[in-house]
Specification:
Structural class: mainly alpha
Shape: globular
Order of helices and strands: HHH
Number of strands: 0
Distance between the termini: 39 Å
Number of helices: 3
Number of domains: 1
Largest sheet: none
Radius of gyration: 15 Å
């Protein structure tokens, strides 16, 4: 049980944001939803905005960062 506790503590302290891990995952989910809506509407400025947010949140969470080659963001 102590090994699990130490892993959770390490992940929680890895983010330098003032948001909790759950809040960050919620924001990431909403950013992806916004990106998909903007893509359906062919709204490139919004797609770039959401792609930037997605990459920032993924970096803060310490997970693999998505690339968006159709927008020139890799």
């Amino acid at each position: 049980m102590s090994a699990i506790m130490s892993v959770q503590q390490t992940t929680a302290s890895a983010t330098s944001s003032t948001f909790t891990i759950g809040q960050s995952w919620g924001a990431l989910r909403k950013a992806w939803k916004g990106y998909r809506i903007a893509k359906v509407q062919a709204n490139n400025p919004k797609m770039v905005e959401y792609a930037t947010k997605i990459r920032k949140i993924q970096g803060e969470l310490g997970i693999s960062v998505a690339s968006f080659p159709n927008l020139g963001i890799t």
